[in-house]
Amino acid sequence: MAPLVSAVSRTADPFVRTGKRPTLAVWKFASCDGCQLTLLDCEDELLAVAGQVDVAYFLEASSATVEGPYDVSLVEGSITTAHDAKRIREIREMSGKLVTIGACATAGGIQALRNFAGPDGGPDVSAYAAAVYAHPEILDTLPTSTPISEHVFVDFELRGCPIDKHQLLEVVSATLAGRKPQIPNYSLCLECKRSGAVCVMVAHGQPCLGPATQAGCGAICPNFSRGCYGCFGPHEGPNMPALGDRFAELGVDADGWLRALRTYNAYAGPFRKEADHVERTRS
Amino acid sequence: MAVRRLEAAALDALFGALRRRGYTLVGPTLHDGAIVYDELDGADQLPIGWTEVQDAGHYRVVRRDDDARFGYTVGPYAWKRYLHPPALRLWRAERDAEGGFELLDDAHEVPRYAFVGVRPCDVAAIAIQDRVFMGGAHVDHDYQARRAGAFIVAVNCTEPGGTCFCASMDTGPKARAGYDLLLTEIVEPGRNGQRAEPVYLLEVGSERGEELLSELGGRPARDDEVAEGERRLAEAADKMGRTLDTHGLADALRRSLDNSRWDEPAARCLACGNCTLACPTCFCNTVEDTTDLTGAFAERTRRWDSCFTHDLSYIHGGPVRVSLKSRYRQWATHKLGTWMEQFGTSGCVGCGRCITWCPAAIDLTEEVAAIAASAQARATRRQARVAPSPETGKGVGDAATTR
Ligand code: SF4
Ligand code: SF4
Ligand code: SF4
Ligand code: SF4
User: Fold this and answer.
1) Which residues contact A42 (CB under 8 A, 6 or more apart)?
2) pTM value?
3) Domain range spanning residue B231?
4) A226-269: pLDDT as tens digits
5) Is B88 in the pocket of ligand 4 (CB under 6 A)?
6) What CATH architecture applies to the domain A23-109+145-177?
7) For an interface test with B, which of A16, A49, A198 has the most B Cβ atoms less than 10 Å from its Cβ?
8) Are the beta carbons of B87 and A185 separated by less than 8 Å?
9) Cys-Cys with B27: which of A85, B116, B135, B197 at CB 3.0–4.6 Å?
10) Which residues have a Cβ under 8 Å from the Cβ of B110 and sit 6 or more positions away?
11) Does residue B213 sit in the same domain as residue B256?
12) pLDDT, tens digit (0-9, with 9 covering 90-100), for A103-156
């Protein structure tokens, strides 16, 4: 993943002072559109967004497009085809700031499960393709799903599956103002405690990925008495083996721990390494 | 002030009297499998007939066989949630024509709370946060306003919980000061399926408390009733779920910064910060400045932070406390050691929250005791090394050469 303190925070010439309305483009790669929908879901704020930026390219919202270059590109989705690997480089070329939005763009997404699907734990898409498509032979796809940052430089990575609307507005506001986005990298538990939720691990004996997961969603699941699924990916320094031990004490076996790790952020470093370790060491 | 004896119905009268005086009532209530503090309409919302089982990383509510109103100890959240809220906007500003900015009037009403059911450890914790936020040259005005308005109904603990160690920290199980009213709940075990109603001993701690008395009913307590309350509290002191030997502890911690025993909690710690946010005395904040989409408005928000985040020790170039060991050590040594130098008291009141609500089940009392024991062993070894040898009358290597 790209460094979290990004070039966005070091912008010397914020758009607000130049007087011109910056152009914004929204791009889609392998993804479900959920993160783009989050942008559309900013109903109250969309007018303000539209007032501040020229939405020059956003097919989810409008078929009208303006040619680049663009001041800010929001990129949803992961790279799963050779064509997309080329396209993301072109987008990078014509973008001032490039911000990835969501788990697919930032960590490869759920489709990155193919990266471990081979018999040796390596990449293999054939089994999934056969299970999903009637004619897998017509697919032209890479054996891997990789985050945008494995292909081009990324200015800021916004986590989440899907992203959080407030965080999105914060990143856009910060980018426009030329300041560092206030997006924390610490554990979800801080947000959980601030929100007033009752800890499901302690009070209900439910496994929760919160202690390893980055804050951002506002602790939605614990507030509905469910453990965290890790949608926002690993936080700044998770202790994965220790959380695995704790899951085991709560009755989760190695398979269960592996399943917990291998969801939307399966390909993100700490989750991936822990899962690799579990797979290597279990009998 | 003489002790009074009240029937359970007096709690309704108490709620009514406080409400008539304009207080927002906050007290314990059952929510999502835990006893938490929330705004209450009446005494019937107290967790009547409930208690809880607490251990490291473990909490469950269970039924009692009586109708005690306060038959449990402390839950996941301390009263600091109300006195030092998890998020607070500090100011707002608008960009002005000259490119500068102007502060906007951001005055907001601070609620006047009556806290009902504050345990002795938490009464002590509030006094500690008073020192933190109001004791120095720079007073926290929001805290000060909330604190000045707050009415405190404390409740002594006759049944300490599984992770409690207030007796070790000298903050309970009986509250000494810092309350307006103080209750001791006396309830007999239920018999033959009959659930017993509790009665209360009431002590007054302030004029505000005194002023309420006439509305609460009851009668002066008899000597034997007062003695029974004292007896139960004395017994409670011996029934703490945890203990901590604080003798020389701060010093032992100071001498143990490089102790390899810190590796053990560090190997288990998740850096989740739950201990610090659950702790009633931890006060660390982060301050975030944001601008809106238009760039015309800015605001500054203060949020609860923790020494388990990288950001809390971030200085130019990166965080100072990167390893989990350094962060766990910071937490433990601040609570039980350096807090003394900083504020003149311990930073721990023995409420046990950090033990119960640690999802990794790390027990502060156990870790700190192990560190202290190891420091003691080290000191003994050193003493043995410098003790005079019978042959030469000199130390094996005297202090000057072993330094
Ligand atoms: S419920 Fe999960 S996220 Fe919340 S405090 Fe507990 S472990 Fe952390
Ligand atoms: S350190 Fe733990 S036991 Fe002590 S006051 Fe804080 S939460 Fe309570
Ligand atoms: S223990 Fe940590 S979070 Fe608590 S007051 Fe000390 S430094 Fe702050
Ligand atoms: S000691 Fe426990 S509660 Fe505190 S940060 Fe570590 S794992 Fe979390």
Assistant:
1) A49, A165, A168, A169
2) 0.93
3) 4-238
4) 999 999 999 999 999 999 999 999 999 999 999 999 999 999 99
5) no
6) 3-Layer(aba) Sandwich (3.40)
7) A198
8) no
9) B116
10) B142, B145, B146, B149
11) no
12) 999 999 999 999 999 988 899 999 889 988 999 999 999 999 999 999 999 999
